[in-house]
Amino acid sequence: MGIFTRFRDPNVIFGILGVASLIVAILAWRFPVIPSSQVLSINVPAYLYFAGFGIVVCSAVAWIAFSRQINHVVRRAPDFSDALTDNTNGYNWTEIIQPDGSCVFRSNGYHITTLDLNYRFYKGLSREIVLIYYFYIRTDGIFGFEKGEERRIPVQHRVLERLPNNNVNKGLNQQNRLKVRALGHVIDLYVNEQFLARIDDSPNPHLRGYMGFASGPNPSEVIFSNLKVWKIN
Question: In terms of pLDDT, which residue wins out, 136 or 130?
Answer without folding.
Answer: 136
